Predict the structure of Orotidine-5'-phosphate decarboxylase.
Amino acid sequence: MARFGVRLAKAVAARGPLCAGIDPHPGLIESWGLPLDVSGLERFAVGATEVLAAETAIIKPQSAFFEAFGPPGVAVLDRVVKAAHDAGALVLLDVKRGDIGSTMAAYTAAYVAADAAFAADAVTVSPYLGFGSLDPAVKAAREAGNGLFVLARTSNPEAHALQSAKLPDGRTVAQSIVDDAAEHNAGAEPYGDVGVVVGATVAPGELDLTRLNGPVLAPGFGAQGATAGDLRALFGSGLPGVLPASSRDLLRHGPDAAALRRAVGQVADLLAGPRGEDQ
Ligand SMILES: O=c1ccn([C@@H]2O[C@H](COP(=O)(O)O)[C@@H](O)[C@H]2O)c(=O)[nH]1
């Protein structure tokens, strides 16, 4: 199988950069007229995936909302991964795992190794036990043709104090994470397999991404207030390698499949910019 970075670039070239989040919030399940139980979860999550995964390059199921339903909810997550692949999308599982290296090896077996229990193409990981603690996942993902997205500067307002704190060498914590990710991506074409997460809500100028040579997941677009203009101000007009992610702001248009498809089209138009001149 081709490397994740290669597969992602191909998928984005074909379907655009939008990453559709599958976040079965209880309020959304109910707003779709579904019962707040595992059957409602399944109809919501698989239904949304079948529509959104046919329109977008990459789908991001949020594991927490499935875990909240216990083991049967996790089984639904597995079915969402399969439904997304059947519809032709890549799957970025948002699990935000991170632990000491030896435990990371077990997470690796769960999510990114070649025969992983969940057949995702990439997962989100947390570097806050030290970037080096992620080494088993980086190695296994590379061997399996999968990818990682490392939390660098997250979209939530509480993140600033910790992630923008300065290290003794003058860089911010978030910048050091971007730089560590960049080392794994050096020389890869079109880009490497170790992406970072940088919230669309982050102020421009906080991070230098020029050497990253990897994809950037940018959540916070839509429901958290970031606009397409914010994304362009933060990442540059062509949004190279950037995957703007939206969950609630897309899902609220369901359960009507046509309305969901229209919402994806409207977001794609916004991301393309006026007359698409900055693509
Ligand atoms: O910095 C981060 C990292 C991850 N997320 C996740 O993205 C979605 C956002 O959902 P919206 O409904 O589009 O706000 C959610 O799953 C978060 O856990 C993030 O928001 N910020």
